[in-house]
Amino acid sequence: MQNDTIAAIATPPGVGGIGMVRISGTDAFEMALPLLRRPGGHSDVPPSHQLTYGHIVDPTTQEVLDEVLVAFMRAPHTYTREDVVEIQGHGGPLVLQRILRVVLAQGVRMANPGEFTLRAFLNGRLDLAQAEAVMDLIGSQTEAGLRLAMQQLQGKLSTQVQEARHAVLGVIARIEASIDFPEEEVPIPQPDELRPLITEALQQIESLLAGAQQGRLYRQGLRTAIIGRPNVGKSSLLNALLRSERAIVTPIAGTTRDTVEEVANLRGIPLHLIDTAGITPTADPVEQIGVQRSRAAAESADVVLFVFDGAETLTEMDQRVSDELQVMGFGGQAGSENLSSKHKRPVVLVMNKADCPQRLEIDELQRMWPGAAVLKTSTLTGQGLLELEATIADLVQAGKIVQSDSVLITSARHQEALRRATEHLRAAFDSLEQALPLDFVSIDLRAAYEALGEVTGETASEDLLDRIFSEFCIGK
């Protein structure tokens, strides 16, 4: 399979000015040349890494399929470190499919999802962390997320992981040299010599893990459900936070009958805002579905904005919604370390319609939700909206923009591998403290070394590689 020549459309589906078909493999040039008709009838391979003008023709019918620019790129200076041909044509889906069909008819195989990047990894151009960063780069929704993905693609994360891995390997080498070569009189390392070395590796890994929660938020975003009874201004709040009229707003209660989800940029974090139908008893089967989806949105949220009408006193329905959220496991204000917990996800209480005469008292809400942040907002005048955004950012301890030199763990897979590495290093440290034979220390150190190798792919299994690259788009 690795020796096959593969091809795929490398630009997104849809209509555009330019589209590209990519071919990679040992026979890429041989497969592409018969399809290219150039002015002057040239048939030799064009210079590497230069665009060549011509037309793509169907060799069986001589029909001209498209006017193109083609780049022939010789290995190893390519994305896959194989010979690569990129055919740049017009960006219509039909014309690209026709070009791809004649390429495949030459004996080229259709690429699997992520196979170009998989070959870049297998051929040593990228390590596994850098390969995963490719998809993060494509899917970035904010400038901060884009910066983190680019840092990972440039190898900053890999460098720090490798430094920790080399530190662990140094300890292993000292231990195993004394075990394997006793006749050479290699001195047995003493616990006082090994403790600082293990501690150094542990601190390097823990410094990466310290930013894992924040990194996850920059990559995946913060799910924020806007919850409340009907007609308190939930849809207006969504529109205000998005700075656009996304949800329909009317004075009629129950206008929103389904969840509406959009993404806003909150200080570099993708904020997934979910406007919900008012949680209220109803006999209408359509409204019942909307209420069920509102409850599901709340259950899956990282943060809930619980909206009240500040121009009205608390109602029985407000209390019912409050009781439901508390049953779901929401609490008062919580830090980022609790965001993934099912027990203390934060609630922000929003007293909306602050431009109207106020009848709702802040004290009432504070008694209902001790410790929760309470803010007054007006979606009509904009009052309190900046404070609301700042409160959400502070709740997740992400109020500062990622600096250019920050390296944050954004992948749950990386976080898990690093967590296992720290557990094994702590176990090795404990074995030293208990004066156990150095063989026991070495076993845990090797396990830590293997776990760190999973991040960069040096110890990744074939099943893990298949799972990672299957999530890539075809053509990348």
UniProtKB/TrEMBL annotation:
Which molecular function term from Gene Ontology is one that the record holds? Answer: metal ion binding
Which coenzyme or cofactor does it need?
K(+)
Q: State where Mg(2+) binds.
A: 235, 256
Looking at its record, which EC class is this enzyme? hydrolase
Where along the chain is (6S)-5-formyl-5,6,7,8-tetrahydrofolate bound?
Answer: 22, 86, 125, 476
- Indicate where this protein resides in the cell: Cytoplasm
Reported EC number(s) for this entry are 3.6.-.-
Family assignment from sequence similarity: Belongs to the TRAFAC class TrmE-Era-EngA-EngB-Septin-like GTPase superfamily. TrmE GTPase family.
Tell me, in a sentence or two, what this protein's role is. Answer: Exhibits a very high intrinsic GTPase hydrolysis rate. Involved in the addition of a carboxymethylaminomethyl (cmnm) group at the wobble position (U34) of certain tRNAs, forming tRNA-cmnm(5)s(2)U34.
Name used for this protein in its record: tRNA modification GTPase MnmE
Organism, scientific name: Ktedonosporobacter rubrisoli
Gene behind this protein: mnmE
